[in-house]
Amino acid sequence: MGIILSAGEAASFAERMEKAGLNTLLGMGMAFFVLIIIMFVIMLFPILFGERKPKKDARAELAEKAIENTISQIEEHEALTDDTELIAVIAAAIAAAEGSGSTEGIVIRSIRQRKLKKQWQRA
User: Are 95 and 103 in contact, with CB atoms under 8 Å apart?
Assistant: First the structure.
């Protein structure tokens, strides 16, 4: 049941391995050749059909709208927060620091966050 080369001769092991190697190389070579052709066809798509990328201006405009939308949502959220509890805590801290027992006479007009010095910042 071996490979027959010609006129009834049986092929030796070396001859069969040679044919198997050639078949393998031929098969792999054809596969790579077809893959290379497919690669070139894909590379020609932009030339044949034209590039359809969105313009950079449209992307920048969308990004700007998104930023404006985010800022407006933050401003709405900040406007809705009630600072009365924070004011009460600050007034109580001031009264305790002064030694008076009540917060009468203490008026808090504005609250601003200050940058902490390096010695007070957490690592």
Answer: yes
